[in-house]
């Protein structure tokens, strides 16, 4: 399997000025790599979850002026879309690659999903210490589990449950200069290892969508 790698060239795209020039660079340089990475990921995730999983690549179609600060692929059990469902994400900001199990604000039944995670907070706390939590998929400021205060994870889950725009993403971030990004096999293995760690939470929440 010829798996893609990510170099500084891809990360530098997010410094390209202007919406259309940046989108053109994303379409030409990043999206083909996302497809080459995402198709085998969807196959592996189908096996892991026991459901047919489908690849989606962010189009940023709603943007009219501001260029995207990040871009991503998503894998979800629904072939029509992913934002209203728990889903797996891999994407890039200008300084890191992210690997998430993502619950974003468009989810229906967000309260029920959040409660399932709150009921399993002790299991979330047992994930590797370097795993990170993000409360906003549009921002870079994720926190590692290791760096969180005692009740911070609990507060994050409560916020996800109670705040309309609240989100919860769990996984890990890999710095732009990490050698694993230069080795397609190791990167794929790292992504799948992350998804295997968070899959039990996906399994407990994916049935709560509409």
Automatic annotation (TrEMBL):
- SUPFAM superfamilies listed in its UniProt record: YktB/PF0168-like
Q: Return the similarity comment.
A: Belongs to the UPF0637 family.
Q: Identify this protein by name.
A: UPF0637 protein DT065_05430
> Which organism was this protein described from?
Salicibibacter kimchii
